[in-house]
C-alpha cells in the first residue's frame, strides 16, 4: 500500500520546543529525494517515531548523531549505527541509550554491562544472555530483571528461582518448572503460585493440595484431581468447589459418596440445655 501523501506539519518542534524548519537543515537536499519529510520523517523532530523513520531510511547517517544532545536521537542512532561505533555509548548518561547498546553489542562486550545501575539496561541484557550468564541475573535486586531472566532460562535451571522473594517471579517459575520439581512449591506462601501448581501436577499427585486454605487452589484441584481421591472435596466449605467435584463424578457416571451425617452440637444435653 502506498504511503499517505506527506503533510507539512507547522507544529513540528525540536527537542527544545523550537519550530523545525527545512530551510536551515543540513539534509535539505535529501528532502527532494523523499528521504526526509517535515512533520513525518525528520531527525530534528522531538517525536521519536519521526526520528526512527529518518534513521530507517538513512541508516548511513546514524553514526553522525551518536553525540546528539537529545537522548532519543542518540538511542535511535545507536539502533541503526555501525556496530564499531557502539562501545563509546556504553557509558552514555541516559539508560535508554545504554539499553540499546546492550541489545546490539556483540555478546563479549555486552556482558560487561551486567552491573549497569539502571534496570532497563539489565533487562535488555536479560533478553539476550545465554543461560550460563543469565543465571547471574537471578541475584539481581530488581524483580522485573529476575522475571525476564526466569522467562528465558532453560526449565532445568529454574530451581534457582523457586525461593525468589517476589511472588510474580515464583508464579512464572511455577508455570515453567519441570513437573518433577513442582512438588517443591505446594507449600509456597503465595496462593496463586499454589494454584498454578494445582493446574500442572498430575491428577494422582494433587492430594497434597486438597485441603489448601485458599479456595482458588481447591477449585483447581477439584477440576483435575483423580476421581478416586476427590471425596474430601464433596464436603468442601465452599459451594463452587463441592459443585465441581460432584459434577465430575456425575459426568464419569459415578455415584457421589454420601455426605457425612451431621454431628450434634458439642456441650449440650439431650434436652438442649
Derived structural class: mainly alpha
The major β-sheet equals:
none
Mean pLDDT level: 89
β-strand percent reads: under 5%
Architecture of the domain at 180-254, according to CATH? Alpha Horseshoe
Rough outline:
elongated
Q: Round the Cα radius of gyration to an integer and report it.
A: 30 Å
Question: What are the key terms here?
Answer:
Leucine-rich Repeat Variant, 12 helices, disordered C terminus, 273 residues, mainly alpha
Describe the overall structure.
The chain has helices at residues 28-31, 48-57, 71-80, 95-104, 107-110, 119-126, 131-134, 143-152, 167-176, 191-200, 215-224, 239-251. With 273 residues, it is an all-alpha fold. The protein starts with 27 loop residues before the first helix and ends in a 22-residue tail after the last helix. 38% of the residues lie in helices and 0% in strands. Helix 2 (48-57) runs parallel beside helix 3 (71-80), helix 6 (119-126) runs parallel beside helix 8 (143-152) and helix 10 packs parallel to helix 11.
Detail the topology: elements first, then pairings.
Elements: H1 28-31, H2 48-57, H3 71-80, H4 95-104, H5 107-110, H6 119-126, H7 131-134, H8 143-152, H9 167-176, H10 191-200, H11 215-224, H12 239-251
Task: Offer a quick outline of the entry.
With 273 residues, the protein is mostly helical.
